[in-house]
From TrEMBL:
Start and end residues of each Exoribonuclease phosphorolytic domain: 1-130, 148-214
Function of the protein: Phosphorolytic 3'-5' exoribonuclease that plays an important role in tRNA 3'-end maturation. Removes nucleotide residues following the 3'-CCA terminus of tRNAs; can also add nucleotides to the ends of RNA molecules by using nucleoside diphosphates as substrates, but this may not be physiologically important. Probably plays a role in initiation of 16S rRNA degradation (leading to ribosome degradation) during starvation.
Family to which the UniProt record says this protein belongs: Belongs to the RNase PH family.
PROSITE patterns to which the protein is assigned, alphabetical: RIBONUCLEASE_PH (PS01277)
CDD domains noted in UniProt: RNase_PH_bact
Lineage top rank: taxon: Bacteria
Quaternary structure and interacting proteins, as annotated: Homohexameric ring arranged as a trimer of dimers.
Class of the enzyme per the UniProt entry, highest EC level: transferase
Pfam families on file: RNase_PH, RNase_PH_C
Stated name of the protein: Ribonuclease PH
Length: 228
């Protein structure tokens, strides 16, 4: 793993917030509580966790145009925020959460590979802090967060399995993947693809082993940040 740091309570207004830094990838994550749920859940007694994701114009080596100026989100953005939302929901007891929504916003300040993984890992910390406020206020009785959630990238670079790819590694990797897991190492989602090379079952198993190692380290960093 690249050096990982998670700084909590970095914004004034959000119920939960953190800045996660994984190497030179820095993502601001905030969690906002709302006393409502989407229309399709109204009256169902279930809560909802959703996410939004974006990259600042100079988070990359050359300026990116803001998606707002184009009038719509790009396909990559939509795909990533859906991934973040369903990943975080995998660790939530939505009955215990009650009929309320928590929106987790993930804004990439600086990108150097693995932004979606950092967003999921930091997003869970922001979610945890927001839920802690709900519990402290007595608004919910039992903890709705049943498992921590974290994500890491792995790939095959120069013929070798590599954990936590930075941008140069990611851009040249023959195989790369994102692994999202719960605290008991159960898989939420695996995104793996080969480009310019194929991979074997043994190589996939090697990457899985690396991912478990990385997720364990990320969850230790999550716990340390929340307990600080």
């Amino acid at each position: 793993m690249r050096p990982v740091s998670i700084e909590t309570d970095v914004t004034k207004h959000a119920e939960g917030s953190c800045m996660i830094r994984v190497g030179d990838t820095h993502v601001l994550c905030t969690a906002s509580l709302e006393p409502r749920v989407p229309p399709f859940l109204k009256g169902a007694g279930l809560g909802w966790v959703t996410a939004e994701y974006g990259m600042l114009p100079r988070s990359t080596s050359s300026r990116m145009r803001r998606e707002a100026t184009a009038g719509k989100q790009g396909g990559r953005t939509v795909e990533i925020q859906r991934l973040i939302g369903r990943s975080l929901r995998a660790g939530v007891d939505r009955v215990a959460l009650g009929e309320r929504q928590i929106t987790v916003d993930c804004d990439v300040i600086q990108a150097d590979g693995g932004t979606r993984c950092a967003a999921i890992t930091g997003g869970w910390v922001a979610l945890r802090l927001a839920v802690n406020k709900l519990m402290k206020a007595g608004d919910i009785i039992s903890d709705p967060l049943v498992e921590p959630v974290a994500a890491v990238s792995c790939g095959i670079y120069a013929g070798q399995p590599v954990l936590d790819l930075d941008y140069p590694e990611d851009s040249e990797a023959g195989v790369d993947g994102n692994f999202i897991m719960t605290g008991n190492m159960r898989l939420i989602e695996v995104q793996m693809s080969a480009e310019g090379a194929t991979y074997s079952r043994d190589q996939m198993n090697q990457l899985m082993d690396l991912a478990e190692k990385g997720v364990s380290e990320l969850m230790a960093a999550q716990k340390a940040a929340i307990d600080a």
